[in-house]
Amino acid sequence: MNIPQSNFKPLEPILTEYAKIPGSLITILQKAQEIYGYLPKDVIYHIAEKVGTTPAEVMGVATFYSQFRLAPIGKYLIMACQGTACHVNGSERVFAAVSEYLGIESGKTTADGLFTLENVACLGCCSLAPVIMINGEAFGNLTPEKAVSILKNLREKEEA
Ligand code: FES
Fold it and tell me: Would you say 106 and 119 are in contact if contact means Cβ atoms under 8 Å apart?
């Protein structure tokens, strides 16, 4: 079996800086996720070796915190706000429509690798509630129809 091997080079300066500092595992994992977009298995093993712990322990931390992803994300990361302002303005219906259109739940990626959907807490733009953020761009005052039409446009753009 041909298992893809991650390139550890960009991770080395981070490991050099933090590996021997007690309690810095979360920082290392955050920075690794910034580099790879998620935490590949071989990266977890590599970090464990450098930090001097077991892969199971690193995996335990990675699975405990919801900020860490263990699978690659899609081209478009959709963060659907479930904060209070969005909630009272109908975020549940927006999320349900998006989830149904894409055919995935929160934390999952579409089979074509285009969209990853994530429920998140307040995105910091409550005056636009309900809000979703797609690759860092906020879309506000959404209705279920508006949200789906944004995704349809993105999909059409990709297919063109
Ligand atoms: S509650 Fe959704 S942006 Fe603040």
Answer: yes
